[in-house]
């Protein structure tokens, strides 16, 4: 597949925002159920909120710290698994919705197309969602390991807070960078016929010259809810507010990520976008 040069591709990122503001509400509607349930299994903010308890924490061991970081008890983990299953289901549908819109100019979430989209997209959605979930969990685990290392190394709580805060920032930026590098993997799996490993290699190569803009676009997307989480943690607003913000993060970050994914894919491959042409002409006209 021909890969377009990365020069003058900044319009793609503006178009991603424009597309999301236009169609994002429909995509977020599909994300409501998984967004509400996923925090029961994996909180994107648990390592952040733990820092605001630095004056009172007193973990006796690593396991004690790891358990204390969770806002919700482990007894509700099954709700999170349901959320993860629903995420796989709806991400597969979103792949189809956005691709169909860009490819033929028709935006529809009609139930009669669900079966076709699942047959075509479900395996790729399952693989990508599971790998993303495992990556986030590994990053959380690694952050906890470093938190505990600083805890046993430094006697000062303030020093622990400084080192742990730097750890959190580095971890979050690293995760955003990784998600930027592999963002084209799903569409390359779905639309090129390449095996998974070959699709990943091609996706990473195609991101050459685009990673920085993708990184900052994702950072800009995440930053508002991150600021809200910091304020919530500082004001001690409670578990309900914290979990609600986790749900909001899932609710709009996942659809935006997929929106950016397909905007990049169509720009990288130089494929004509019929959702843009549809505004200019009837795509069925001769």
Write a structural description.
The protein is mainly alpha-helical and 286 residues long. The protein has one domain (29-276). Helices cover 73% and strands 0% of the residues. The protein has 11 helices and no strands. It has helices at 10-37, 46-49, 62-69, 77-104, 114-153, 157-181, 185-191, 196-206, 211-234, 239-269, 274-277. Helix 1 runs antiparallel to helix 4. The longest helix has 40 residues, at 114-153. The protein is globular. 33% of the residues are buried.
Show the helix and strand layout:
Elements: H1 10-37, H2 46-49, H3 62-69, H4 77-104, H5 114-153, H6 157-181, H7 185-191, H8 196-206, H9 211-234, H10 239-269, H11 274-277
Helix pairs in contact: 1-4, 1-10, 4-5, 4-10, 5-6, 5-7, 6-9, 7-8, 9-10
Structural class of the helices, strands and pairings? mainly alpha
Helix count from the secondary structure assignment: 11
Note poorly predicted spans.
280-286
Integer tally of domains: 1
Mean pLDDT: 89
Judging from the principal axes of the Cα atoms, what is the shape?
Answer: globular
Order of helices and strands: HHHHHHHHHHH
Largest sheet composition: none
- What is Rg? 20 Å
How much helicity do the residues have? over 70%
Distance between the termini: 27 Å
């Amino acid at each position: 597949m021909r890969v377009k040069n990365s020069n003058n591709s900044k319009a793609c990122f503006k178009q991603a925002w424009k597309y999301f503001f236009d169609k994002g509400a429909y995509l977020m509607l599909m994300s409501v159920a998984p967004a509400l349930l996923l925090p029961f299994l994996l909180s994107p903010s648990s390592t952040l909120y733990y820092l605001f308890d630095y004056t009172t924490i007193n973990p006796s061991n690593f396991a004690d710290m790891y358990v204390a970081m969770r806002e919700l008890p482990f007894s509700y983990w099954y709700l999170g698994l349901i959320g993860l299953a629903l995420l796989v289901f709806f991400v597969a549908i979103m792949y189809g919705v956005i691709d169909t819109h860009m490819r033929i100019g028709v935006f529809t979430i009609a139930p009669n197309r669900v079966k076709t989209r699942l047959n075509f997209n479900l395996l790729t959605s399952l693989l990508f969602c599971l790998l993303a979930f495992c990556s986030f969990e590994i990053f959380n685990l690694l952050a906890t390991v470093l938190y505990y290392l600083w805890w046993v190394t430094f006697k000062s709580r303030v020093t622990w807070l400084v080192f742990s805060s730097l750890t959190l920032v580095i971890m979050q930026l690293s995760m955003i960078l990784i998600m930027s590098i592999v963002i084209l993997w799903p569409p390359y799996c779905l639309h090129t016929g390449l095996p998974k490993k070959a699709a990943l290699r091609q996706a990473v190569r195609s991101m050459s010259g685009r990673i920085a803009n993708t990184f900052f676009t994702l950072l800009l997307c995440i930053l508002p809810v991150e600021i809200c989480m910091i304020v919530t943690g500082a004001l001690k607003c409670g578990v309900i507010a914290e979990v609600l913000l986790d749900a909001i993060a899932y609710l709009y970050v996942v659809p935006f990520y997929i929106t950016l994914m397909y905007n990049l894919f169509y720009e990288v491959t130089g494929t004509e976008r019929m959702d843009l042409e549809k505004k200019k002409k009837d795509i069925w006209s001769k």
